Amino acid sequence: MNQVWMGPVASHMLSGLYVTLWVSLLTTLVATAIGIVVGALSASTTPWVKFVVRFYIDIFRGVPSLITLLFVFFALPHVGISTGPITASVLGLALWGGANIAETARGALKSISSHQTEAARALGMGKLDALVFAVMPQALRRFLPPYIGQLTVLIQASALTSVVGVTDLLGSARQMIERLAYVSNDAHAVEIYCGVLVVFFVICYPLTLLSDYLERRLRS
Asked: The pTM is what?
């Protein structure tokens, strides 16, 4: 069996893998920053702050990640913001992922008894100090396992960036399938997509194991 096609395909897909890892890293950093800030603001007692936080979380958690990505990609130029596919993809996925991480953070904070805050205030701490030094360290134990799970979802969602022209792992795989179909009788689609599946599994499965381990370890 002629396997000459495998070398060029692997090389092209390797460059796509670099893009996938880069987009995943940027998306994770931005989404985490958004999620932690919004999640912390959910503890605010100011009505308009709570309304804005709830509005953001409900909107982006209620919309598919692909729709968010496409909206950001096509809407930003209409308001005079010119971005490339990668920047728009990171922003779109980060807004969506940030809402999910914020909800996870909000749930972790609410799971801590109000008595902890009251005890901290009784020791002379202000509201912010009580939140940062008394509540958050305890909430972190309940936040980490589902947060790691959210990271796997963000990495998987990075495959959607090929829809807006990003030559990521999936995009590079599709390009090679189309090229092989054009120059030969066999596009090798099954083999190439199996390769994509294996790569995503290798990246995401350790994070799944880590999430399960942390859940058992931190909640025991």
From this structure: 0.87
Residue-range domain boundaries for the chain: 6-218
Q: How far, in whole angstroms, is CA 127 from its chain's centroid? A: 30
Structure-token match 């994509």, residue found: 196
Radius of gyration of the chain (CA): 21
CA-to-CA distance for 17 and 65, rounded, in angstroms? 20
Between 38 and 138, the more confident residue is: 38
Two tokens, residue 109: 């904070």
If you write DSSP's letter for every residue of 75-88 in order, what string do you get?
HGGGGT----HHHH
Q: In whole angstroms, what is the distance from residue 8 CA to residue 11 CA?
A: 5
The CATH homologous superfamily of the domain defined by 6-218: MetI-like (1.10.3720.10)
pLDDT, tens digit (0-9, with 9 covering 90-100), for 184-218: 778 889 999 999 999 999 999 999 999 999 888 87
Q: Is the pLDDT of residue 83 over 80?
A: yes
85 vs 16: CA distance, rounded Å:
14
**In this predicted model, what pLDDT tens digit does every residue of 40-79 receive, in sequence order?**
888 788 899 999 999 999 999 999 999 999 999 998 888 8
